[in-house]
């Protein structure tokens, strides 16, 4: 019998791997609804849905390997990063889904949440006040009007699979929907700034780099408390706190 491997687990969801099958267990079936629908609409390769029996969704494994991981080096070639950029552009150019995703929150809502998180980080001594203040200033550039695109919403590099220089698929679509395309690009390059030029070469259009940098700060500030409370370490080398320090 194949070994059961825990891919990720926290209080909201867990993903297990048994051979070439992934089993996603989620307490919120609305997230699974979004994931299944988004994969059916996406214009890039995605896992195949094998079956669904709430609270479990079974999907196939993708060929190849992840492009990289936050906090670790990527051994993928510049051509692979460029291919990922082209795949992201293809997704962003696809017909819009009928719902708003994680990347589609309004500037006003984001600003309110950001101010609350910044206050929590300083009040509880999690991060120095000057580090939080500087990144809050940088993050402001992301709080602007944007044209909606079909966004993944959680486009970490560990969610993109490649085989050589070819993208073989993208996983974890539960946050997908209409949103800001630059949020996806920033999430994808978070902690891997040196690969941004390769990604944008594949993406193939002019991008406001100040907004990308703003999203790096904004996403990291919003993530620190959630990561700590769910058993992850944003202070690990190359992760969110290092991203914030790099803005100083």
Automatic annotation (TrEMBL):
Residues of the signal peptide: none
Listed InterPro entries: AGP_Transferase (IPR051678), Aminoglycoside_PTrfase (IPR002575), Kinase-like_dom_sf (IPR011009)
Domain Aminoglycoside phosphotransferase: 42-204
Protein name: Phosphotransferase family protein
Species of origin: Streptomyces chitinivorans
